[in-house]
Amino acid sequence: MTRTERAAYPRALNRDRSESRTGLDPNLRKRGAGNHNWGSLADEQRLEAGALDDENMELAEEVEGKVGVEPAERSRSGSSATSNSLTEEERERARQLRKNAFKKGDQLDLAAIARSSAAVSGSPPTADNISRRPGQVTVECEKL
């Protein structure tokens, strides 16, 4: 049986080849929405306008909230230690801990390293931190 004979067969004539076998239309119209059916260009203008309205409302709420509320004072918690509250001995111990942290063969104690961060922080700089900045070279010249 040739292909033309098969196409003329009654069973083949009953089948409409323009429709898919599942019955779903592969050519869904997306109304200008693009490949993934995300919405049309007409929807885009409406969505942009809605987004701008939302943003304006949020800005208005922020302005109203700032006018009615006084700025809160920053409270110091007991856990936040500044570099000024540490003694020189504690700072040196913390520097040594950080210097030798990776040299130990056993577990690395991240909590101890975090606790020692106040000793090595340079913010805000103190007088002794300024005099010991890394990479700073002091050159003394003799008068000729």
Task: From the structure above, extract its key features.
144 residues, mainly alpha
Topology at a glance:
Layout: H1 3-7, H2 10-14, H3 41-68, H4 88-99, H5 110-115, H6 117-120, H7 127-131
Task: Write up what this structure looks like.
Residues 1-46, 61-95, 116-144 are annotated as: Disordered. This is Hyaluronan/mRNA-binding protein domain-containing protein. By secondary structure, this protein is mainly alpha-helical. The chain has 7 helices and no strands. The protein is elongated and about 100 Å long. Mean pLDDT is 71; it is low at 73-83.
Give a quick precis of the structure.
With 144 residues, the protein is mainly alpha-helical. Helix content is 45%, strand content 0%.
So what's the overall shape? elongated
Percent in strands: under 5%
Topology as H/E string?
A: HHHHHHH
Question: What characterizes the major β-sheet?
Answer: none
Unreliable stretches covering 5 or more consecutive residues: 73-83
Number of helices: 7
Q: What's the overall average pLDDT, rounded?
A: 71
Structural class: mainly alpha
The percent of residues in helical segments reads 40-55%
**Alpha carbon gap, first and last residue:** 115 Å
Number of β-strand runs:
0
Q: Taking Cα atoms only, what radius of gyration do you get, to the nearest Å?
A: 37 Å
